[in-house]
Amino acid sequence: MVLDKVNFPGDLRCLSISELNILANEMRELIIKKVNTTGGHFGPNLGIVEATIAMHYVFDAPNDKFIFDVSHQCYPHKMLTGRKEGFINPDMYYKYTGYTAPEESEFDLFKVGHTSTSVSLAVGVAKARDLKDEKYNVIALIGDGSLSGGEALEGLDNGAVLGTNFIVIVNDNDQSIAENHGGLYDNLKLLRETDGKAECNFFKSLGYDYCFVKDGNDIESLIKTFEKVRNINHPIVVHICTQKGKGWKDAENNREAFHWILPGTLDGKTYNEGESYNSITNNFILEKAKKDKTLIVVNAATPGVFGWNDEFRNKLGRQYTDVGIAEEHACAYVSALARSGAKPIWAVMSSFVQRTYDQLSQDLCLNNSPITMLVYWGGISSADATHLCTFDIPLIKNIPNMVYLAPTNKEEYLRMLEWSVEQDKYPVAIRVPNIELVSVGKEDRTDYSVLNKYKIMQEGVNVAILGLGNFYGLAVEVAAKIKESLNFNPTVINPRFITGVDEELMESLKSNHKIVITLEDGLIDGGFGEMISRYYGNSDMKVLNYGSFKEFTDRTQLDELYTKYRLKPELILQDIKNIL
Amino acid sequence: MVLDKVNFPGDLRCLSISELNILANEMRELIIKKVNTTGGHFGPNLGIVEATIAMHYVFDAPNDKFIFDVSHQCYPHKMLTGRKEGFINPDMYYKYTGYTAPEESEFDLFKVGHTSTSVSLAVGVAKARDLKDEKYNVIALIGDGSLSGGEALEGLDNGAVLGTNFIVIVNDNDQSIAENHGGLYDNLKLLRETDGKAECNFFKSLGYDYCFVKDGNDIESLIKTFEKVRNINHPIVVHICTQKGKGWKDAENNREAFHWILPGTLDGKTYNEGESYNSITNNFILEKAKKDKTLIVVNAATPGVFGWNDEFRNKLGRQYTDVGIAEEHACAYVSALARSGAKPIWAVMSSFVQRTYDQLSQDLCLNNSPITMLVYWGGISSADATHLCTFDIPLIKNIPNMVYLAPTNKEEYLRMLEWSVEQDKYPVAIRVPNIELVSVGKEDRTDYSVLNKYKIMQEGVNVAILGLGNFYGLAVEVAAKIKESLNFNPTVINPRFITGVDEELMESLKSNHKIVITLEDGLIDGGFGEMISRYYGNSDMKVLNYGSFKEFTDRTQLDELYTKYRLKPELILQDIKNIL
Hints:
2 copies of one chain form a homodimer. By secondary structure, chain A is of the alpha/beta class. Chain A folds into 3 domains: 2-258, Thiamin diphosphate (ThDP)-binding fold, Pyr/PP domains (Rossmann fold), CATH 3.40.50.970; 277-431, Thiamin diphosphate (ThDP)-binding fold, Pyr/PP domains (Rossmann fold), CATH 3.40.50.970; 455-579, Rossmann fold. The first copy, chain A, contains 23 helices and 18 strands. The radius of gyration of chain A is 26 Å and the shape is globular. The mean pLDDT of chain A is 97.
């Protein structure tokens, strides 16, 4: 293998163009095999192989600095920077994270997994270089999809006036995670169609010098262009057109489905889920949308996460909006839709709701717009540090006017959905259960307009357990453990409302309870449990809050986390015994 | 007065152009007098008088919908929509807020006070119109300065593909709050210089139809243009060039100083402060920057808030960056500066730090970049609902790796600043005291690298009072009240660290204290106090948390708020008595 000769970027410079082409094919084969085993970002990495080789051939990393946007496309870079074992040796497949990570290599500048940040970060790198009177190239790589994010646009605007070396490689594969959305993409299309020669040029309008590479999978033309811009003394955009999913036919033809794949996908393995929180959500939406033409569903570039496939989107027609990677806009957009008489349902992953704090506060909650926000994937997990979903409760819960609900089963969830969509008083967020679907088989008839009413599921004594959302099941387990070990039945409560205290119920517990336990599937700090602790601050009630600690965990096994956070019935029982 | 004849927009249509011009002058005089009495946004409102008249003359609000960005420029709109008394009658000067407010008038669609939101909101309004098959014009007004904000750019990108009526009026006065920054502004300049004819056009590159009005203070040409675009069937940008501060010479010549003015400014009244937290900060920065060329100060478009005048900026030269209205970029930028060996100090107002949550989390804290963030104006106030500064503690405190400090006096603050700038381990935020400067006259020699060490200021018994930052003085007052009324000395503690618990100290209090009081100048929910409540949850310690409630207050008097939140020594004493 040519790859045998390449351990670090310098080794590339001993190879001929034809060897580099062979290398690209070898790398591509390894990526296909590895990702089909572990799952991961597929299309973006296949598309960027040649460009990565050319970048490392021309520029002198780590002296020259590469900053990869979202790092969905950093596998080839890892292979060329001392980490190829993670792609060659199946025993090492899990050694390296799927994102750039400075702790792995000096070739990675930042830990990155959210989109649209590379240009901003690169501006800082370039400015530090200039302050220190150093000389090196700063190169931000950003995909066309990521360009629509506000942070990318702010960064581009600022990078343009640096006045010194600053190179932005725009990796244009004519695709975001799903298809692109926005006026900007018509300009990219125009530029592709005119070989970059159109006068009206988004990048030039922002003040950039500009050059165009028609075939961004052709190593030779990439090298030629990069050599021209190396050591340039001003900001320039290098617009390269690549083929997403290149080298795997299905991925070339269905760029959305192969953006990120699950293990075995290439062998035809399918993950057909039965009834799930996704499926019941989507049935609800389709039914509702048919009857009510003002219902509209909104997301920012991740329809696949919610199971919003082509059929679903086609059925909804103009009642569906993908705003592209633009979470801030999504939030303001749904607020305005609601204030203008439409009924928006906005779906967002817990990790990405972080991109909209001020919009949640100012555009949405200050205007008290009656929207429904569905927060997916919230909970403690073994995810990469860049995709933790443990912060949404503190983030959302403490904004005035917001009603944040935590259903524990299908019937409750559907009832909350129905109420939320039809009410006109509050911005409502629902934390979609991130567990296997639970059905209690009995319709929920709660009137959720009576806010902050918790539900007693089992009346008991001494200990009351508040099991929020995903962790209601854990509450039931803890209750069983208490019964078994201490021989009394504790009270089990399903709070349902994250955003407020059921003062009447909490007050009533004082008469025959000594301990209140709160269980939440997310960060303790600033969360639901602390609110309960505060409530009981002036009383004799003991309160124990359980949830995740304030830390960025990184692919840590769930069991290990649960042990550390004492989120296990036997550990909680121990804590109770210590008090009783 | 012509204004006597105008109560609502329809009245404008009975006037001749020359009467409209007289009206503009009358309105301008009233704005000048009113703002010089109450303080407020001056330059932006003077510049937009004619455009507002023309908008209301041509379009049919409230059937047609206007969305004003940041609403720094909504005074003329208020005068023409039933609220002129607020500008004519000094007794009514405080009746209306300085921002658009739906509760005041059906002509105001949203409560807005943060920048760069109008286009996004307008896209939602237009989409709701289309879903309901209604017909009206949707008009977003946005200033050139606000265009650099990510949300504006996301909104523009999405608005371009609506395919239906959508009008964005870009009010280009060649100025943000301070001067503009970014490559985009070179394009606006080019468009102004070419009467909008340049081929390379930022707005066209985003997919908009485009027209240009050279003199945006000329009512007649504005009316002609607006009449052309009224009922247009696709998205268009109307680029109008206006004179910020028009009609008040000093404001025309010094657009930054007169963006927002204090009462009496036009009569020559000056607000010379002596030594203040601003002045000591700026002295520290200038001294430090002279010695260390890697020190760099960063802000997003509000240098005036920090006292960063021309002299200050000139002294710093390339060690100063104003990124324009682009808070997300500011955060990523400083993170990258720090990771690349520079020492960034980033100043931001509490209310605007809300615009960067994900960047704080992902770009900054996940990368653990050693920056110094100075958070200004944090605290409970009688501010407008759009500018509350009570949310920064819950927002910042619960992000992993962050160290958030709350100094209580000059010496402590300077020591923290020095430590923060020179350390290389943590992202550090400092809540700049939002009170009159307090000097204890004795150098602080604390080693702040020992995290979460609180300081006992007075040893006592029974009650321990944790007075955080601004509220340390309140803690001292409460202690005196206790001594006077209950005849014992309570313990007084200055926590200094917002982000963690001094477990050793908290543990030691258990031996001879029954009550711990926390006082924080901001939202209780998710804040410092709840963390202390949680800590004591399994113990007999009673904990009372004081701070603001989870609500958007709107120009409520501070005394009223303090009473409601029980932030007064006598009320806190009462609560203590109830427990003891």
